[in-house]
Design a protein that fits this description.
Chain A: This is Simple sugar transport system permease protein. Chain A: Its main location: membrane. Chain A: It is found in: Cell membrane. The complex is a heterotrimer of chains A (309), B (505) and C (360). Chain A has 309 residues and is mainly alpha-helical. Chain A has helices at 3-32, 40-58, 61-85, 90-108, 132-138, 142-160, 162-172, 174-180, 184-210, 222-232, 237-251, 253-260, 269-289. Chain A has a single domain, classed as ABC transporter involved in vitamin B12 uptake, BtuC, CATH 1.10.3470. By secondary structure, chain B is an alpha/beta fold. Chain B folds into two domains: 5-233, Rossmann fold; 251-340 and 419-504, 3-Layer(aba) Sandwich (Rossmann fold), CATH 3.40.50.300. Helices cover 34% and strands 23% of the residues of chain B. Chain B is built from 16 helices and 23 strands. In chain B, the strands form five sheets. In chain B, strands 13, 16, 19, 20, 21, 22 and 23 form a seven-stranded mixed β-sheet that branches. Chain B has a six-stranded mixed β-sheet with strand order 6-7-8-3-9-10, sandwiched between helices. A four-stranded antiparallel β-sheet of chain B has the order 2-1-4-5, covered by helices on one side. Helix content of chain C is 69%, strand content 3%. Chain C has 14 helices and two strands; from the N terminus they run βααααααααααααααβ. In chain C, α3 packs across α11 (280-290), α3 crosses α12 and α11 packs across α12 (295-318). Classes of the chains: A mainly alpha (309), B alpha/beta (505), C mainly alpha (360). Chains in contact: A-B, A-C, B-C.
């Protein structure tokens, strides 16, 4: 393979991995607080359509990202209200949120499909990315650098900060956290809102970073893959980084298999399209074979908080 | 000097129950004050209001002479009130240091906190490694974290909620030394318990609650255990009626080198338990919580399947590899410790709960279909015979109080006339009247020729109920011997077992 | 004034059955308001989506045809969810059922015989059950979460359709369209009322729901599903294997989804096309919840959701409302239902300010 091709591959992989990484980091924080929000896919779609519409109407990409995050938060608050304030079943509510996000985004995007917008440009001046090697480092948009910063931020928050300690405590043993005097519901609302914001931004990556237009269900199950990745990463941010890039690689494999020629290029396109989903199942199987994986799960994950008084 | 804490007319109403009714008493500085009462007497509700977890509906709390309201635990701690909970508010996956940091309201750099923790541990002889994960600690060590956490705030009042229920007698002695030292330094202690001998040994004053009302405030050293017990329980105590000079039949349940696999991270498996229970005999198994009792019960009931058929035999028949259903058909019934969610399904009606364990022994299933009439009739009989307070067989198990649910569960198993009955914590959290009824039913079942195994942490219960006794520690079971051959000290040493000895060193 | 939630002694049966109805009514009211606020004809939308399918007798046959697969899949899901087994890949099992039936139809192409259609149905059931056995195997052997695996397999199954109809199963006479041949006459599901589109799947759906109701309420099988779902620890104590229950739950729900797939492909579709996955498998999740995970309730839930589907199409042509609005209404119903659930276990009490007088 030529260096140009390798660089092209790296750039594509980074693009494909970024939304999954951002969404999964948000979900990781949510799950560490003891909440399982299966609505990531729905929140991503809400973020995607918001970002698309804002760019389409104003042309301002950063405003689009901001409002996509806000839309993600708004969607996540429906989930938060139902599961935290009304102790509704988290699995069912998460599913409902995904169905809702899918319908809402399709409704809002009605009539906008195939209308082009512009992608978010690179963060650094083009002079820095003239040489292909430099392009690998400096050629990306702000969203990509944001996703890297987010890995460190989430790691630092959980491991080093007092607020992160409280969040982990709430996810480990909500009743104890409550009896010490922490607001379990408050902490979880904050976590769910953060997860919503990240899912919104992850959704914004689709029209701003990948395909500059709106298409119904354009996130194509990436939100679910993000949920699976959190399990794969044993709830640890840096493993999540590795996992997201592994998936980015799998998702873009078709491109370089085609480019590389040989027997791989004979594989039907549908199998390539199915690859990320098959890979998710395989990864989940591998992680469960490694025995201790589930031990790292937050002890209260998915269980409603029901104090006795 | 004003009273450290003074309560006047504290009242708290819950739906359907008046938990506290005009309770008034005072705690002096440096006093160890017992709050004594049966389960459900309102002790926990009262201290939750003092600690700000709940608010009283009426009444006044005075702190060092000033009238105060305590809106939340943080405010309580600011006043100088510390609390050690019965069910520890600890986080298994976090370290000792992180756990303590979570309990601190002010943000203290972790290095400074660590040195303060070491200082407190040194002063009171509460030794612990701050960097260990809580999950790896024994129950006694966990309690030390709670105490250290409370002491770091320099409390003027320390509330201890049933602190000894999970400790060995030796650990209890160590705890008392710490509490006496604290009291000598001027810290008041509110000590909640229903163990009379402990209160006589430790406390200066005792306030006795019954049914939410204050019965008496007295000096426990001037009272006898019996007089305090009568104030606590009300009507005169009923003793268990056991026929004198009973003889036992042939061996019924024989357990031979029973082992279980280690399942979870911190579960204690059964490690080669052997014992024999004869017809008509009640074998008590004592031990501190978390020493393999649950695994033992599950291995006997069949919830944990064994691979050695002869490890468990009933009347000579090996049942070690059978599942719960097959064991029940052969006469072995069991009652696990956890009532709601294990022994019974809270969302199901009592009638449906009867189907859970009695369907095969009592013919409630015909060709894969459930005969709900038979289940209902049987449930009605259980309710009547065991005086279960429930609207009827259609009531959900979750709507019953703990004591009534336990009576139902015990009745459900006992009326199946099992030839072997294994029960864990038969009267845990049950009021005295119901406990006496359950004890009597067990004795009567034994008299009718069944073999019974009672696993309990309540030594008083075991000493009153069992014919023979064995002690479980770290999954190993001591030799079973007639209960009257044991002294309390010996039981205590056996309960402490190996790890008790290392801690004392 | 403040309100407080207070736990009921017994879950309220009345609330249990009232909440789905209230959820539907609230969806109409709130939906009308929200759609008006964002610039649609809100009242018109609700009228067209919820009432026109009922008032227009011509639409009733559409209702039956739409409701049948939803009910069949919803019944299976209601059984699985009762057992706390979260099969959300019914869409994939539906697709595999459809593909298995298609396979038989193509194998027997040009043949005739009464046995062809039953064989397709059996193949569909087996296909759905087999596909559901993958998550079952992974969950029981390796403790892999069935939510994620069943869902991922749905995406895979859709790609499988695309592949099959594009290459090996493509209709040689189809002028390049990616679709299979139209099935032979004996591989088509008969209509039960001549002159309508109501096919045999409609009575089958009702029978499935009735049988499932009887089994779930009277049999040990039903008891097992419910007790494992409500309290797995107690179920083990009562002698029910959790793994066996997971298997049964996934096989039954997969089999029913596969049955629906076979009926759809041999009925309304008459051939396999890329548009075969119509989200019935996902929408049936809402149906199962609206039906309170009770097979009889699922009939109600299936009809309500079918109304919104048919109504959504009406609204599209009559007032130009996007089809996507239907999904929003359906999700809102589920939200309101889940929110209303709390009233089953709790009651709302007005909190009287805390004063000494208020005590008595």
């Amino acid at each position: 393979m030529s260096p140009e091709l390798i660089i092209a591959i790296i750039v594509t992989v980074v693009g494909a991995s970024t939304p999954i990484l951002i969404a999964a980091l948000g979900e990781l924080v949510v799950e560490r607080s003891g909440v399982l929000n299966l609505g990531v896919e729905g929140m991503m779609l809400v973020g995607a359509i918001t970002a698309f519409l804002v760019v389409f109407l104003t042309g301002n990409h950063y405003l689009a990202i901001l409002l996509a995050a806000a839309a993600g938060v708004a969607a996540s608050m429906i989930f938060g209200f139902l599961t935290l304030s009304l102790s509704a079943n988290q699995t069912a509510t998460g599913l409902a949120l995904t169905i809702f996000g899918t319908g809402l985004s399709a409704l809002a995007g009605q009539g906008y499909s195939a209308r082009p917008v512009t992608l978010l440009g690179p963060l650094f001046p083009a002079e820095l990315a003239l040489h292909p090697i430099w392009r690998v480092l400096f050629g990306y948009s702000a969203l990509v650098y944001f996703s890297f910063a987010l890995v460190f931020a989430v790691w630092w928050f959980l491991k080093k900060s007092r607020a992160g300690l409280i969040l982990r405590a709430v996810g480990e043993n909500d009743l104890s956290a409550h009896s010490i005097g922490y607001s379990v519901i408050g902490v979880r609302y904050a976590a769910v809102a953060f997860g919503g914001a990240m899912a919104g931004i992850a959704g914004a990556c689709f029209p701003l970073l990948l395909t500059p237009q709106w298409a119904e269900r354009m996130t194509a199950g990436r939100g679910w893959i993000a949920v699976a990745l959190v399990v794969f990463a044993s709830w640890r941010p840096f493993r999540l980084l590795a996992g997201a890039y592994l998936f980015g690689l799998v998702m873009t494999m078709e491109l370089y298999a085609k480019a590389g020629g040989g027997p791989l290029s004979a594989i039907p396109a549908e199998l390539w399209a199915a690859m990320p989903y098959i890979a998710t199942v395989v990864v989940l199987v591998l992680i469960s074979i490694r025995r201790d994986a589930s031990n790292n799960a937050p002890a209260c994950l998915g269980k409603p908080f029901l104090p006795s008084n | 000097m004003p009273n450290r804490l003074e309560l006047t007319g504290i009242t708290k109403q819950f739906p359907g129950v008046l938990a506290n009714d005009g309770v008034s008493f005072a705690v002096k500085p440096g006093e160890i004050h017992a709050l004594l009462g049966e389960n459900g007497a309102g002790k926990s509700t009262l201290v939750k209001m003092i600690y700000g977890i709940m608010q009283p509906d009426a009444g006044e709390i005075r702190w060092n002479g000033q009238s105060v309201t305590v809106p939340n635990p943080k405010a309580a701690r600011r006043l100088g009130i510390g609390m050690v909970f019965q069910h520890f508010s600890l986080f298994d996956a976090l370290t000792v240091l992180e756990n303590i940091a979570l309990g601190m309201d002010a943000k203290i750099p972790s290095r400074a906190l660590e040195s303060r923790i070491r200082e407190v541990m040194q002063t009171y002889g509460l030794l612990l490694d701050p960097h260990r994960t809580v999950a790896t600690l024994s129950v006694g060590e966990r309690q030390r974290i709670e105490i250290v956490r409370a002491l770091l705030l320099d409390p003027q009042l320390l509330i201890m909620d049933e602190p000894t229920s999970v400790l060995t007698p030796q650990e209890v002695d160590q705890l008392f030394t710490v509490l006496r030292k604290l009291a000598a330094e001027g810290c008041s202690i509110l000590y909640i318990s229903h163990k009379l001998h402990e209160i006589k040994a430790l406390c200066d004053t005792a306030t006795i609650l019954r049914g939410g009302k204050l019965v008496d405030t007295c000096d426990p050293k001037q009272e006898t255990s019996r007089s305090m017990a009568e104030k606590m329980i009300g009507t005169g105590l009923r003793d268990i009626v056991k026929a004198e000079g009973r003889t036992f039949g042939p061996p019924k349940l024989v357990v031979n080198r029973l082992r279980t696999q280690k399942t979870g991270h911190f579960d204690v498996p059964v490690d080669g338990a052997s014992f024999t229970v004869r017809a008509g005999e009640i074998l008590g198994i004592a031990g501190v919580a978390g020493n393999g009792q649950n695994a033992l019960l599950d291995a006997l009931s069949g919830e944990i399947l064994g691979d050695d058929r002869e490890a468990i035999t009933i009347d000579g028949l090996g049942i070690g590899t059978m599942n719960t259903t097959e064991r029940r058909k052969r006469g072995l019934c069991a009652v696990p410790e956890e009532r709601n969610g294990h022994a019974a399904v809270g969302d199901f009606s009592l009638s449906d709960n009867s189907v859970l364990t009695a369907r095969d022994r009592l013919g409630m299933v015909v060709m894969g279909l459930i005969n709900s009439g038979a289940a209902k009739t049987y449930t009605g009989k259980v309710i009547a015979d065991f005086a279960v307070k429930a609207l009827g067989p259609a009531s959900t198990a979750g709507s019953l109080s703990g004591g009534n649910l336990q009576k139902y569960i015990m009745g459900r198993e006992i009326l199946q006339k099992p030839s072997v009955l294994v029960v864990s914590q038969p009267t845990w959290g049950v009021d005295a009247g119901a406990a006496a009824a359950i004890h009597q039913a067990l004795v009567d079942l034994a008299s009718a020729g069944s073999a019974i195994v009672v696993i309990s942490q309540d030594l008083d219960e075991l000493r009153a109920l069992s014919d023979t006794l064995a002690v479980i520690n770290m999954g190993r079971l001591s030799q079973a011997r007639p209960v009257k051959d044991f002294s309390v000290e010996e039981i205590g040493l056996l309960m402490g077992g190996v790890h008790g000895a290392t801690e004392a060193a | 004034m403040q309100f407080r939630l207070e736990k009921r002694r017994e879950p309220s049966k009345a609330m249990l059955y009232a909440t789905p109805v209230v959820a539907v009514l609230l969806t109409m009211v709130v939906g009308a308001i929200i759609f008006s606020l964002i610039g649609f004809d809100g009242i018109g939308a609700v009228r067209e989506i919820f009432f026109t399918p009922l008032t227009n007798a011509y639409k009733w046959q559409d209702l039956g045809v739409k409701a049948a697969p939803l009910i069949i899949i919803g019944v299976g899901l209601s059984i699985a969810y009762r057992a706390n087994v979260w099969n959300i890949g019914a869409e994939g099992q539906y697709v595999m059922g459809g593909l298995a039936a298609t396979w038989i139809a193509l194998l027997t192409y040009g043949m005739s015989g009464w046995w062809i259609l039953p064989l397709m149905v059996v193949a569909g059931i087996a296909g759905g059950a087999l596909y559901a056995s993958i998550p079952a195997l992974l969950r029981t052997r390796l403790n892999v979460n069935e939510i994620l695996t069943s869902l991922m397999l749905t995406y895979v199954s859709v790609q499988l359709i695309y592949y099959l109809v594009r290459a090996p199963w493509k209709d040689p006479m189809g002028m390049g369209f990616p679709q299979t041949r139209r099935f032979s006459a004996d591989a088509l599901l008969p209509n039960i009322f001549p002159g309508t589109i109501v096919h045999a799947g409609v009575p089958i759906a009702i029978v499935v729901a009735l049988v499932a109701w009887f089994v779930m309420s009277r049999s040990v099988f039903g008891y097992q599903m419910k007790v494992v779902g409500a309290a797995p620890h107690a179920a083990r104590y009562g002698g029910f294997s959790e793994n066996k229950t997971i298997w049964l739950a996934l096989l039954v729900s997969g089999a029913l989804a596969g049955l629906a797939g076979a009926l759809e492909v041999s009925g309304p579709f008459q051939r396999m096309v890329p548009g075969f996955p119509t989200n019935y498998g996902f929408t049936a999740i809402i149906v199962a919840f609206l039906g309170r995970l009770n097979p009889l309730g699922v009939i109600f839930g299936g009809i309500v959701i079918a109304i919104t589907f048919v109504g959504g199409e009406v609204a599209q042509t009559s007032i130009g409302l996007s089809n996507a609005a239907t999904g929003v209404f359906q999700a809102m119903m589920l939200f309101f239902l889940l929110a209303g659930d709390i009233l089953v276990r709790y009651r709302i009490r007005r909190v009287v300010p805390q004063t000494a007088e208020a005590r008595s």
